[in-house]
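Tokens for GOLD domain-containing protein. Go.
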Amino acid sequence: MIVEIIDPYSHLLHSKLYSSEGRFTFTAHSPGDYRICLSSNSSAWFGGELLVGVLVFYSSPQRVHLDIGVGDHAQNYAEIASREKLSDLQLRVRQLLDQVEMISKDQSFQRVREEYFRDLSESTNRRVTWWSIAQFILLVIIGIWQMRHLRSFFQAKKLV
């Protein structure tokens, strides 16, 4: 199975050929929609149907199970502890540092969202203000035209 991850700017972040089982992780460095493409060079992958999280095919059934972890859940700390030979205290410090980093990234993301929506609100406010001014000017012009028209009408009828 070939796994490709494409960021919101259409840059390829990850592309790797996996065996029948595998695991991969990646960190999203910018906000937006990421695409995860799973493909195979096997002909058994064609002609099947797609179910939520599981791909089932009729010719030779294959399954793909996706567990998507976000933040803390994306890291396997037991595996990290055994691989790097960390004590319980060192592992807990690593977890806390990862949580602090995750909170910092979340705050940065919220800042970006707030900036985007503030710009959107200010743009909408500006448009509404100009539209209101245009309506006011149009109403004044129509009012002046109506008064002049009525005055000329009454003068033509010799009522004034």
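Confidence is low (pLDDT under 50) at residues 45-59.
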